Amino acid sequence: MATKGITVYLVRHGQTWFNHFNKMQGWCDSPLTENGIKDGTSTGIILRNVAFTHAYCSDTTRATRTADLILSKNLTGKIPLTVTPFFREQFYGYFEGEDSGQTWYMVGFPHGAKTYPEILEQYGVDASKDFMHDADPFHEAEDARTYWTRLMKGFRQLRSENKEGDKVLMVSHGTTIRSIVDKFGKNDGFVVTDSPRNGSISKILLTDTGIKILSYNEFEA
């Protein structure tokens, strides 16, 4: 018998200008590029026949814009959209808006890793958060504990506002989706050294006993 629960379609927002320029983009924001608008529209077409009962998005402009693009293509009826801060991207503190390659070099070098993939391969996703918090001269960047305290509030929100059998859309962010898949799908063989692509779809199942990863970084309903 198949396990029932709430199916969440995690979609990464469309490409932004900071994505294009390879800059750190957590709580800071930048508009969607022309390609980013195409990302949202294309994903909306892929998901057009999915009868979502509810839609959510991070409270960033890039996520809300992408959610609107996706929902505009849905053929199953009007779907309520809730904006939530709980599924916002990781906060990078002092490093917000900085060059990504330089930032991860500074964060990883004290630990013998020079790039973000090297940090992930040697230490893991949560360690990268702790390393960034330590490297931030203001120590405002979210560490793993602070980050997951926020995310778990988001999962409680989804459980309280939806019921078994529902399908919900959640437009979120690359590191947030990667972190969820890493935490709950590592033992199922999902590899998160590759970032979820803009507009990609990852599916998770919220059950009474936990969170199961169904797919990662795909372009199919």
TrEMBL record:
Keyword annotations from UniProtKB, A to Z: Hydrolase
Residues marked Transition state stabilizer (site): H173
Single Gene Ontology BP annotation: regulation of pentose-phosphate shunt
SUPFAM superfamilies in alphabetical order: Phosphoglycerate mutase-like (SSF53254)
Residues engaged in binding substrate: R12, H13, G14, Q15, T16, W17, F18, N19, R62, E89, Q90, F91, Y92
One Pfam family matching this protein: His_Phos_1
Bilayer-crossing regions: none
InterPro entries in UniProt: His_Pase_superF_clade-1 (IPR013078), His_PPase_superfam (IPR029033), PG/BPGM_mutase_AS (IPR001345), Phosphoglycerate_Mutase (IPR051695)
Molecular functions (GO terms): fructose-2,6-bisphosphate 2-phosphatase activity
Annotated catalytic residues: H13 (tele-phosphohistidine intermediate), E89 (proton donor/acceptor)
CDD domains (UniProt xref): HP_PGM_like
GO CC terms of this entry: cytosol
Superkingdom per UniProt: Bacteria
PANTHER family: FRUCTOSE-2,6-BISPHOSPHATASE TIGAR
Name of the protein this chain belongs to: Histidine phosphatase family protein
